[in-house]
Write a structure and sequence with these properties.
Strand order of the largest sheet: 1-2-3
Radius of gyration: 29 Å
Strand content: 5-15%
Largest sheet: 3 strands, antiparallel
Number of strands: 3
Number of helices: 7
Order of helices and strands: EEHEHHHHHH
Oligomer: single chain
Length: about 180
């Protein structure tokens, strides 16, 4: 079994850790470089390990090459490394996550905003559903709850404007109503 040097677990998440060579520590400003691989799965961590180790090697190589130039500051390299994600190289879940993120961003930017519906419209759409048959007693119960909703929220209140505190207020009112 191959050992992946620097691959270790912190809690459930796999991380990569590498000591900075002694001759570069002052230049880099650290004794070690760590990077989260953002996964709890060992096989995914091994794949991401390869990507991260390449980035760390490049970072240390650049720091070593610039070592001769005393004016060089490695903090830019470290900042760049901190922003590098540990991308999946071939795992299906990582690819799915990437596709999902891209699609969500595109849809968020390019899809038209749907007009919000009012509480009154929502109730009437629900009650007018021809696929549901309700008894008269059920309709009366729904109507009494609807009346309380309209007293608290108003007929023109948009669904997206109703917040958690509003729902708590409604529940407090309904809790104290006689059965």
């Amino acid at each position: 079994m191959r050992r992946f040097s620097g691959l270790h677990r912190r809690g459930d998440i796999w991380h990569y850790r590498r000591w900075v060579p002694l001759h570069l520590r002052e230049r880099v400003g650290r004794t070690e470089i760590t990077k989260s691989l953002h996964t709890a799965d060992y096989s995914t961590a091994k794949q991401r390990y390869r990507t991260v180790i390449d980035h760390v090697d490049q970072l240390l190589q650049q720091a070593s090459e610039q070592r001769l130039n005393d004016d060089y500051d490695c903090s830019g390299l470290l900042q760049e490394f901190a922003t590098v994600k540990a991308p999946p190289t071939s795992d299906q879940d990582g690819l799915r996550t990437l596709i999902k993120t891209v699609v969500e961003e595109v849809l968020e930017k390019h899809s038209p905003k749907k007009p919000s519906i009012t509480l009154d419209d929502l109730y009437h759409r629900y009650m007018d559903d021809p696929a549901r048959q309700r008894s008269r007693k059920t309709v009366m119960t729904y109507q009494s709850v609807y009346n309380v909703l309209m007293d608290i929220f108003g007929k023109d209140r948009l669904i997206e404007e109703i917040k958690r505190d509003d729902c708590r207020q409604f529940m407090d009112v309904v809790r104290h109503l006689p059965a």
